[in-house]
Amino acid sequence: MTKQAVFPKEFLWGGATAANQLEGAHDEDGKGLTIADVSPGGKQRMKLLMTGESALTIDYDTYTYPNHVGIDFYHRYKEDIALFAEMGFKTFRMSISWARIFPNGDEIQPNEAGLKFYEEVIDELLKHGIEPTITMSHYETPLNLVKNYGGWKNRELIGLFERYARTILTRFHKKVKYWMTFNEINTGVFGSFFSVAMRNESAENNFQALHNQFVASSLATKIAHELDSELKIGCMSIYATMYAYDCNPKTVMTKDLQNRMFNYFCNDVQVRGEYPTYATKYFEQNGIQLHIAKGELELLKNHPVDYLSFSYYMSATVSTEEKEKTAGNFFGGAKNPFLEASEWGWEIDPVGLRIALNDLYQRYEVPLYISENGLGAIDKVEKDGTINDDYRIAYLEKHLVEMSKAINEDGVDLFAYTPWGCIDLVSASTGEMSKRYGFIYGDLDDLGEGTMARTKKKSFTWYQNVIKNNGLV
Length: 473
Hints:
Shape: globular
Distance between the termini: 9 Å
Strand order of the largest sheet: 2-3-4-5-6-8-12-13
Helix content: 25-40%
């Protein structure tokens, strides 16, 4: 018998995607290249990008580029949105590709074809009663801003992003209430290429890049609230619930430092509006000096975000000794003997989500939005065409139960849930199609071969019933 999980009446159920992972049409209608467009497919993707082994160019002779086609949402969005509506989506988290609006990121005038495309997508969502949630920057900085500006360490990107944010907010603010600024911004702590658009930079440059994004985010929030005080702007980060492997005080201290710098730092600045003392001491102890222009600290303080959104896939266990390691999306750690793992080594921890919700809400006391959660797995198409992804249903059910407990037993203000990759798309970490998250199957393989036909998985009907019943019954 399924455990009950009850949610608030106006809860926003939906799904989440990113432009660079599903749209395709990477060079159509005036779109410029982004960092995603030069990211090779395959399990070595992150290594190739971070070490600089792959040049920031397109090399079809050596690599594949699944993002260039995605699942062709650019031409098939009406079909896909109709399926989202059939599931009962209340919201759809999508992103706008900066390079569709400003192909090189630094133009004065926007590309009208790009604005028109997103307007048509937004109108199609609204036609079906689906509230758009838009991420302004989701791992797709225009490539020109890397090659000719050096990425986010360059303060000029603040003004360029401000122009981009003003353009899309002005165009769409009457149709879109919920916005997010930078996707999983705290991956920049590790110098993630997707986040800060830089490779092999110093810690100082990584944190300067983050500071520049904080300022850009506050400027976007300021613009939005000036256009309409009812608009809701959120920050977005990864959250990995952290455990100490043992009760050795040194292990606990190590865990606490990693927790602060990864799970709290970016949220502290964007929600509380100021740099926390632990961060300023960390900078001091590590010789990190940030260039902070006059008025920027006041901007951060005066224009914090309205809500906090986060992705949650796994927890992390911290050890000061050499232990058996587990895989993780930017954050691995020691293997937790109490948890099972996915096919990609990501440990499955539903209770960790309840811990995360309590931790974030008690710390910040702003509404929370789970913007990503889900199970990446290899799905098998049966001879009769069905896809019985019971493992995905089991994963999500357990997380829904813990979400419900956080709301009803712990008093957490959680208002939205958008599982990742509600329709199969290209994996950000590996560039694979075989690592699937969706309720809808896309007939494509890792080499981009297939019919692109959409098929409802067993989880489609399951999620449809979850939304219809506003939870598990």
